[in-house]
Design brief:
The chain is an alpha+beta fold. Helix content is 40%, strand content 14%. It is built from five helices and five strands; from the N terminus they run ααββαβαβαβ. It has a five-stranded mixed beta sheet. The longest helix is centred in the last third of the chain and has 21 residues. It is globular.
């Protein structure tokens, strides 16, 4: 029984730490701290949240939170579910170098354009404030509102309008 336990621990250690070269050349060993920060962030985020990510053409990462109600119809207050997901983003960024995190606020198309533009900025500002309270640095976090200009769903249905009331995060590394 003890041999099985020792073998199990050895196998787990090997699988967890990976295989290192035996050539003695330190350049042959791949270290986690030289991995692309985007890759480390994405791996961590996948473990912590259900957020969806995509890589943009400039190499930045967009983080979206589909399937949740982030905001009420006319509100900028963060839902508990959104706060939980944002906390996962912050935890995933721990000890990772990134240049800038931009919070992008959106609205549905109901109502006046000027009002929706203001509301989307308020939503982005709310998320920015929450992220700063979680420990992110103010000089690395920006917020911008885009109103109803970039819908992800049809604004003709209640479900589509709810999906369009959202924030996304864009991380530049």
């Amino acid at each position: 029984m003890r041999a099985v336990l020792v073998l199990s621990v050895a196998l787990s250690t090997f699988l967890y730490t990976g295989c290192a070269s035996t050539s003695g050349n330190k350049a042959d060993v791949v270290k986690a701290d030289v991995a692309r920060p985007q890759s480390v962030f994405l791996a961590r985020l996948q473990q912590r949240t259900t957020a969806q990510t995509s890589e943009l053409t400039d190499g930045s990462i967009k983080v979206a939170f589909p399937g949740i109600t982030a905001f009420s119809h006319d509100g900028a207050r963060l839902s508990d579910e959104q706060q939980s997901l944002l906390s996962g983003v912050v935890e995933s960024l721990e000890h990772i170098n990134y240049q800038k995190l931009t919070v992008v606020g959106h609205t549905d198309s109901s109502g006046q354009l000027a009002y929706n533009n203001k509301l989307s900025q308020q939503r982005a500002d709310q998320v920015k404030t929450f992220l700063l309270q979680q420990g992110l640095k103010a000089e690395q976090v920006a917020a911008e509102g885009r109103g109803p200009a970039e819908p992800v769903a049809d604004n003709k249905t209640a479900q589509g309008r709810a999906a369009n009331r959202r924030v996304e995060i864009v991380l530049a590394f």
